[in-house]
Structures are given as structure tokens and as C-alpha cells.
Amino acid sequence: MSRIGRLPVVIPPHVDVNLDGNLIKVKGPKGTLEYSFPQDMSVSIENGTINVMRPSDDRTHRALHGTTRALIHNMVTGVSTGFERVLEINGVGYRAEMQGQNLVLNLGYSHPIVVEPPDGIAFDVDLKTRQIKIMGPDKQKVGQMADNIRKQRPPEPYLGKGIKYLEEKIRRKAGKSGKG
């Protein structure tokens, strides 16, 4: 039995969960998410918890069991508290600013890069600490958006310039050594 899969997902009091066949809809203060889980998995809602069961110990069923439960748990967490990723900008002249809903990045290129947020994603820029926060209820969308922004100027190992995750450590390399 999957350790993750057999854990029940607790539904917070301000979150509504609807189960319609193999489609689960979760609605909360941060938004609404829906997920069509595999037909082999059986999902039940009882006593304020969501339980995911698998039909057999087949390899694919074992893999889907934990994955389905984790995705449902992320949906419940996302609509109740939301997810966020924090990026940090390092480098002389590199900066980010908000222009309405859009994020404008000046990263040493000849042009500014304008990033438009998809539905359900919001940006917040702290000019003092040079940090960009990506917030939203969908964990996958938040992570993908953070990665797309990081790819605009990934951190380089010699000077550490670029965009990195806040918790990321950059392995630095020594530069050229002079004749000695």
C-alpha cells in the first residue's frame, strides 16, 4: 500500500469538493480547480476527508495511487492557502517591475522582457530585496511560470548573475588565474 496514497486528504471548512464520476472539482477562497483522475482509481468523500483507493497491487495502479492523492491534496491546499515561488535577481542593472498585471524584466538584453500572467497567476515584485513572487492556487502553473521566468537569464557560475530561486545555492567556479 502506498504510504502517500492511503493518507486521507482533510477538507478545510471553507473548501467545497464535488465528485462527478472521475472528475473532482475543488472550490475555495483562492479559486476553483478541477482534475480528471484515472478511471481505475476510486475516490470517496466521507466525514470531511477524501480517500483514494486502488483496485489492485498492479504496478501502474500503485504508481497512480500516490500520484492521484498528491494531486488532489495539492488542489485542496491551493484553493485554501495557495502556492508561491520566490525568485531573486542578482546582477548590476538587472531589475524587475510591475506594469499593471504584467511583469517587466530588464536583464541586460537590448530590450525589456514583458511576462504576462496566465489565468490564476499573480506577480509581486519587491524592489528593495529584488525578489519576484509568483502566486496562485495551481502548484503546477506556479512552478512552470517560475521556471519560465528563470530561463530568461539563468544564474551563471562565475559571478552569480541572473535569476535564481530564493532557496537555490549557486555553485561558484574560480575564474581565470593569472601567471604566478
Summarize the structure.
The chain is α+β, with helices and mostly antiparallel strands. The protein contains two helices and 13 strands; from the N terminus they run E-E-E-E-E-E-H-E-E-E-E-E-E-H-E.
Notes on the protein architecture:
The structure is a single chain. It is built from two helices and 13 strands. It is elongated, with a radius of gyration of 21 Å. It is α+β, with helices and mostly antiparallel strands and 180 residues long. It has a four-stranded antiparallel β-sheet with strand order 11-12-7-13. The chain folds into two domains: 9-80, Outer Surface Protein A, domain 3 (Alpha-Beta Complex), CATH 3.90.930.12; 83-165, Ribosomal protein L6 (Outer Surface Protein A, domain 3), CATH 3.90.930.12.
User: At the third CATH level, what is the topology name of the largest domain?
Assistant: Outer Surface Protein A, domain 3
Global Rg? 21 Å
Give the total of domains.
2
Largest sheet: 4 strands, antiparallel
Strand content: 35-45%
Uncertain spans, ≥5 residues at pLDDT below 50? none
Task: Please trace the helix and strand order, writing H or E for each element.
Answer: EEEEEEHEEEEEEHE
CATH architecture of the largest domain: Alpha-Beta Complex
Count of individual beta strands: 13
What is the overall number of helices?
Answer: 2
Alpha-beta content class? alpha+beta
Trace the largest sheet across and list its strands. 11-12-7-13
Shape: elongated
Distance between the termini: 63 Å
CATH homologous superfamily of the largest domain - what is it? Ribosomal protein L6
- Average pLDDT works out at 93
Assign the CATH class of the largest domain. Alpha Beta
Question: Considering DSSP H and I runs of 4 or more, what fraction of the residues is helical?
Answer: 10-25%
